[in-house]
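Review form for a predicted model. The reviewer records the input and the model, then writes brief findings.
Reviewer: anonymous (R2)
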Amino acid sequence: MMDATRGALEGSAGTRPAKSATESPTRLHAPLELRNFSAGYSASELPVVDASFVLERGSMTALVGPNGAGKSTMLKGILGLTPVHDPSAARFFGEPLERVRGKVAYLPQRSELDWSFPASALDIVAMGLYGRLGLFRRVGRAARAEAREALALVGLAHAQDKPIGELSGGQRQRVLVARALVQRAELVLLDEPFANVDEVTEQTIARVLQELRAQGTTILAVHHDLGTVRSIFADAILFNTRVLAHGPVRATLADASVARAYGLALNTAPDTAHDAERNS
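Model under review:
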């Protein structure tokens, strides 16, 4: 295994020199900042209302809350995938998304993708390179080597030529993580990366994300399992339509806060909330 996840990928396609803060003004700003952010398909039905938080560079944060709380809607809204009340309420590295899109990677829920598409695992990972190479530029030998490297990092070197329709659910999720790796993003947003995966996949994804965080990548992931959030994430945002708490995971997910977010009596949190999420 290579010394560092991003370092390994850069080594396979040419190492990029480090940039100082004076070279890139965006590095002086938080990777993601929301100020009174609202999202939804109509003014009368806003699943996300006045959400505000700031993600510090190199933080690894779980977005936690009950089903229907608007977590995925918020993630899609800040990426422009669902209607929002005021797009300027979301800033990436101090800029609108369109100016820094190459710094941001997004992993949708696995169920939202068409896995019958005739492509191999390697083909899907290589698609993550288009943002850097250009949509109509051929993925050459060095780029495909980088895609293979990413698959190796998630334990799928043996499956690079396998059609994606033949992969297990956990393998498909790891392919999506590998695709994000080759993007070399500074901010990675994930929607339910640990949902319905096997233990090997969960451990692999957690390891890769923690390695990215150690290198300065900022990570925000929608996460349902209150039983594992403390072991995987350093920080948490407790969310139910709006931000209820944000900070270190243990303090943020204190019993009283979780009970309030999930609408439970205090003596039932957090175990009942955990069971409700896993059974939903």
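Findings: The radius of gyration is 19 Å.
Further findings: The CA atoms of residues 61 and 220 lie 5 Å apart.
Recommendation: see findings above.
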